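User: Hi! I'm a student and our assignment asks us to look at how structure tokens line up with a sequence. Could you show me two examples?

Assistant: Happy to help. In each example below, the sequence comes first and the structure tokens follow. Example one:
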Amino acid sequence: MTPVQHITDPNPTTRLLGLAFAGADLVFEVTNQGKITFALGAAESLTGRSDTALIETQWEDLVGEDDCDLLGALLTGLQPGERQGPLRVTLKSPKAGRLARFGSLSVFRLPQLGDRVSCALSIGAPGGMEDVATQAGALMAPETFTAAATQMLAEADRAGLTLRLDLVEMSGLQDSMANMSKQAVEQARKRMAATLRAESYAGLGAAEIAQDRFAIVRPASSSNARLEERLGAVTGGAVKPQTAQLPLSAGSVAQNMRAMRYALDRYIEDGPEAAAKGFGAAVEQTVRETTRFKSILAESAFQLAYQPVVSLKDNLLHHFEALARFEANASPADTIRLAEELELISEFDMAVVVGVTKALMAAPQATKIAANISAHSLMQPKFFEDLVALTALRPRLRSRMLLEITETRLIDDLDRANQMLSQLRALGHVVCLDDFGAGAASLDYLRKLEVDFVKIDGRYIQTMRPGSRDAIVVKHVVQLCAELGMATIAEMIETPETAELVKSLGVNLGQGWVYAKALPEPVWEPSKSLMAAARRTVTSMEWG
């Protein structure tokens, strides 16, 4: 039997060092000037020098050049009792020619230690940061930031950590740098980037999303007042930063990032209007609308309105287009865009198809209704399968349900899209390409997609005058579509004069306020004035 060994209880300092070393490869202390005063651990493997050899050296010697500004920002901003990290740093290789290695750095300013800062350094970046392509020492481009933040959100979610997105407005920053030298501007931006990186989760850093506007992912408990104070100090008090928070819910990394992009895009586009109502208010509105739309979708709390589409030959009803309505007298465009950004558009499109199905079941046999489907939804296999399965329950409705493909998102695989459209047409659906002329890929769409109708974007129609450039463009589009075996629809026809003009250009169908606004039910008859002005004919146009 092995005798029990009695070990003398170590002093508190030794015990604390043991505990610290258990969680790090190297523990050390630095002064406010960055001089190392104490070191213990695997210094040799990290730096190529012994523990004692590190004493009296600068801690900047441990990391790559791009991380020196980060270390400076940590020393400047770290308050008594505050801990920051782990942050990803690039370790300076002890031997020339070796590949760069990453480390995890954490710092803690214990009040009792005065001007000394306790540090822990381990080989390997914080979880998930090895493959994140950040730009150390610089602000990231928005697309780089989005990709890196998505990865970090996923890692934080697995670790059970809660993060948030802070949007930072530094109004007047560009103007304050206008009279500075190029070198001074570069140094100021480096200090600002380092400060943002020190305040970010795992040292991810920040992105400049527009002039004087930045985005940063941070732990949910981080202080905005502290960030604003530090950034203000970096600019010498010339700028008063303002921050707004966008909570990032756990378990939905992709939607978190899409909500972030939507908030950033919206803020950039709003410009002076956003500034007038307040930066924080603009972001809070996005958060509220996101929550509201998810609730609408869960409860199917929206209505469908039905706008008549008529034959321009005789002004007789051809079919209805189902339009989503979320609030009375309010355009649904912003809500639809939000659904697209949150990747909820497929669920919403399916809810619209279900609504159109119910309307067709309740309507007379001659009633036909178009349901809008985003190009993004069309390309999702599950949505396509669900659509086919839903209409298979009532196959006779397929010939009465036109599918109108919206072009809000460009289709990147037109051959695959055409295969899907061909399957839908073979099942009996009529397919319409919506908003032709609104996107750069429109001509390629005509070349590769076989559809029954092409709807000409309303911006051409609203401003069109006889002999105008818009009229010439529409005339040739109509001729091209006719040669390809496609009929055309003109939307946003608001006056009798415009109706006559589009008809003279050969457009087949039309819709707009001159005929009727969207109706609560798919029931409509042409007014007597329209019928009197229409050309009489006994032939009405079929689906084609």
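Example two works the same way, sequence first and then tokens:
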Amino acid sequence: MTLAEFQTWLKKHKIDAYYLTRNNMFLDEDILPEENKIMALTGFSGSAGNLIITPEKAFLFVDGRYQLQAGLETDSETVEILCTVAASPHSWLRQNFSNNRHRIMYDPWCLAAEELERLVRDLPGTKFIADDKQLPGPRLSEKSAHVFEIGEQYAGVSREEKISGLLQTMAAHNLDAYLITSASEVSWLLNLRSDALPDSPVVRAYALIKKDGSAVLFGEHLDYSGIRSFAELGKALKKIRKGRLGVSYRRMPQIIRELRGPDICLTPDALEKDKAVKNPVEIQGFKKAHQRDAVAMIEFLFWLENNWQGKTELDIVEKIDSLRRKQDLYYAKSFDTIAGTGSNGAVIHYHPTVKTNKTLEKNSVLLLDSGAHYFDGTTDITRTIALGTPTPDIINDNTMVLKAHIELASTLFPTGTPGRALDPICRRELWNEGKNYAHGTGHGVGFMLNVHEGPQNISAAGSSYGFLPGMVTSIEPGYYKENAYGIRIENLYYVTEAADKNLENPMLKFEVLTLVPIDKRLINKYLLSEGEIKWLNDYHQKVLTAIGPLLDNGPAEWLREACSPL
């Protein structure tokens, strides 16, 4: 169905608007291209966004990462782009649908019950109509998927031990059963993974955990013994109607309320903290995975320095992917590689295609954001790389981004500090120069799950969840000059206790996982303080010590020069 046909249907059935999220029934998790109804209707391919379709026009809501991209991919005559910094879907609906009685349609599998409650409260005269026909198209692809177990040697804790911890939480809330609707939490709890998605090896299933410790999975097209269809979920929930059913209030689609009724015990998420705080085996796995990933990255950087002329962005994607595939315990990319030269680098989440592919630009930079899933950990790294002799403006802007990165990476903070309190620490250096970046400063990272994992993140508008020892996060400030170039420096870190005995109060710190040099050709050392130079030299010495012995002669020699003191 085209956007015009969709709008004709709305007009015929007297529907004033359709609120379309990018979700399928796994809220805020990745989807397959054929499941992306927003892309099918508008052309927008970004990983986050919501669409409100009226009979006259469609309104696409994106965050700052995708404002430029959305404008390039959509037709301005039929789709209006709205940045969520200025207008959220909720505020837009309040402004445009609050004065009269209206009819708004939504998919109850793809909209959180909590969000619908807010809409109903904020728009008391509006009738919200559940779409039981899947008007935009099927929610899930019919592609079959293989499910496999991840060994305890990687996961660190058995599924029985994890379920035992959940049963204790259920007992504290006097629950007879607990429904998990997050694919990543089901995967973590049961130590299962699948190939349903190319970049996120989660098992796309719901799990009903009963107080006897048994688990029933609900999903489609999965080769897992005993799994039931989503069509059977309602019947299973009704069987425990006289018991107490717990569901995480943040992750529950509206359909669960409709299938179960009002007697749901809404609880805080029972698993997200345990999943986010990595156990010692997982932390060691992250370290080993990052060492192997660094070997691939440094081999790539060595190759690039000698071969970049005449190469394209797609050549870059293929080369770095091929080097990672050679590493032990490699499973898959952790996301589609971002490789942007010149003006393409200024599009924050740009992915090269045959249509947009550019030849690397001399005297500019390449922004390369890439990563991988290994069976023992997940990586995500961004490096901005000099091509030829970049301009003084590029060098100075890159230096300011480096200063911002160092400022947060070297910060000590109390246990439980939320990411929104850490975010301005990173931005301050750029703010002082009148610069900023339209994305978060950091995101949590899953263990061979989703490369973007909550509840923790580092963002001005992000989660209030506090950082705890064992959490893994990115730190990735950037600067993007429209139609010119993009700069980002991203490392992954895990949170640990600061060992300084002179501290009056216990503090936490970020301990680096990523072990790849930062391009010194893009640094104006006269803009760095002595402390910042020491941080960079210490980091490069750590990289050289850890990775140098793992390299062949050519890359090893390149690394010694790349890590020499500034």
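Here is something you could point out in your write-up. The longest strand covers residues 364-370.
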